[in-house]
Amino acid sequence: FQPPFPPYDPTDKSGFSYETVLKRWPVILTAIVDQLHRENHDLHSTLGSLEEGTRTEDNARIEAKIVEGKGIIEKVGKLKYEMARDYVMEPIPMDGEAHVDLYNSELEKLAQDSKNTWFKAPWLYAECYLYRLLRSYFVQTTHWKDYDPFHAQKLDVFTKSGPSIYGIATIMHELESEKEALEADPSKLKVLFQEMIQMCLWGNATDLSLLTHISLAEIERLQSVGKEMQAARKEFILRDDQEKAWDHLMTVKDGRVDFVLDNAGFELFTDLVFADFLVTYTPLFTSLSSPKLIPWFVSDVTPPDFSETIKYLSDPSLFLSKPIQGDSSGQSSSTTEEGGRQGHLQKLVDRLRRYVEEEVFLLSVPSGTGLGGGLTGTTSSTSAAAAVASTTAPAHSSLAEFWTAHVPYWDMETHDRQLWEFLRKSDLVVFKGDLNYRKLTGDVSWPSWTPFEEALGPLAGSFPLLSLRTNKADVAVGLDKDVLEKVEEKDGKWRVNGK
Ligand code: F6P
Ligand code: MG
Question: Using a 6 Å cutoff on CB, does residue 434 contact ligand 1?
Fold first, then answer.
């Protein structure tokens, strides 16, 4: 599909893509180099602690790993140098992983227009290419094949989300006792649906103060003040189709919801809670999630991140240093309350785990590749994901691989017919985050009042979809002209500042 507008690229120095290539990517590359230096330093220490004359096999393996680590550091350093100087982007090496030809043939096309350099290539292509190229550095080694250079960062953010995680678990616990009343009255459920959507949309930034104790009385209060509350939030929501989404859900029977996941950690936790809400309280009964099969855009969920999230939630002492503090009043809670909140989380996680085991929740990863549990960070992880992999619909790897191609979603049918057919059977596909939105709209400079359906190109009408996105890139469509005028007036950075 050829859209009538050009893609965003860094030749426009006022766009976010220019700032990204100039400033943000170098920082990301530097963080990878630092991380590898730390790993190599630790390996050196391990070597030092091995008794001389013994463990020669381990010695040799660690030494070889250090050498390979240095090799990757050099490559990343060279990449950073070349990027800053607008060098030609090299073809992705034949590393045995997906999409080498796809990326390289696009690169050849760009070369014909002299757009195959870092400051000239379309932003969406170049950013996807960057993460795929980085992957090739690791996968071509023996000892770093499955290494995720962003794992430590992802884990660090997750460990800081304790208070919000406990808060949400308590809400879900309180909902349970109201299940019958909720099911009997769809208007009450709708209020909760809207809260869940907000939670899922804002991820870390969600305003949980409104949600700390949900009783039936509280829900009724929310119903009566709901309109005002939604109106207050509307200031930050430029396009809001919650009503349509709810009306659509109410027409579904025994359905399936698909999540095209975005970030790991707290955001993944909110996605799981939203999925839990949908399968528990609405006619949707299965939830299928698509992670990324390779480390991607720093924080995206990989299959090991998925398993690790469930594992860590089951044993919060592993990651929540001060698990019970941090209610919105800032006071620490009593011991009974602590026990209660831990119990709530345990119950929630038991249910999530059971949904995974019973395949109510499925992770869309190719079977037989071992990828479900193969990719690790500094710590190894068990794999709930791998456990469900073999039962996940068709065993064709493209079902998961498409998400790490650079291809706009309007070409999904031609590039990955099997995935497209598969999603056509979904009752709702929820696309999380900014990158998915960029791919849905092709990351081209549509006028912002272009209808969303038009910006979807040939994907429109393929399946019901909901995009939950906070703005972190220039592209934005589906806006009323008066909304656009107001936001332009108020906040010159609205397209990219995530607010
Ligand atoms: O901040 C910009 C950015 O890195 C974009 O390049 C990318 O689209 C986005 O963030 C990733 O955000 P998300 O995790 O919401 O997809
Ligand atoms: Mg992301």
Answer: yes
CB-based burial label for 309 (10 Å; 0-12, 13-18, 19+): buried
Residues 11-69 have pLDDT tens digits of 999 999 999 999 999 999 999 999 999 999 999 999 888 766 667 778 999 999 999 99
Cβ(385)–Cβ(367) below 8 Å: no
With a 6 A CB cut-off, is 297 part of the ligand 1 pocket? yes
Distance (angstroms) between ligand 1 centre and the Cα of 434 equals 5
Nearest CA to ligand 1 atom 1: 472
Residues of the chain with CATH 1.20.930.60: 16-144
**Ligand 1 site, residue 473, Cβ cutoff 6 A:** yes
Longest dimension (CA), the chain: 76
Q: Compute the Cα dihedral for 104, 109, 114, 117 and give only its sign.
A: negative
435 lines ligand 1 (CB under 6 A): yes
- Condensed to tens digits (0 to 9), the pLDDT of residues 187-240 reads 888 988 988 898 888 874 433 333 434 555 655 555 555 556 566 667 789 999
Q: How far is the CA of 203 from the centre of ligand 2 (A)?
A: 12
Spatial distance between the Cα atoms of 428 and 297, rounded to a whole number of angstroms: 25
| 16-144 CATH fold | Transcription Elongation Factor S-II; Chain A (1.20.930)
Report CA(432)–ligand 1 centroid distance (Å): 11
Closest CA to 7 of 443, 456, 466: 443
List of long-range contacts for 223-228, beta carbons under 8 Å, 24+ apart: 223/187, 223/188, 223/191, 226/191, 226/194
Q: Is the CB of 433 under 6 A from ligand 1?
A: yes
Q: Give the Cα separation of 402 and 421 in Å (integer).
A: 13
The CA distances from residue 499 to 202, 249, 270, 415, 487, in Å, are 9, 27, 18, 34, 11
With a 6 A CB cut-off, is 467 part of the ligand 1 pocket? no
Q: Which residues surround ligand 2, an ion (CB under 5 A)?
A: 262-263, 297, 300
Flag whether the ipTM exceeds 0.90.
Answer: yes
pTM above 0.95, yes or no: no
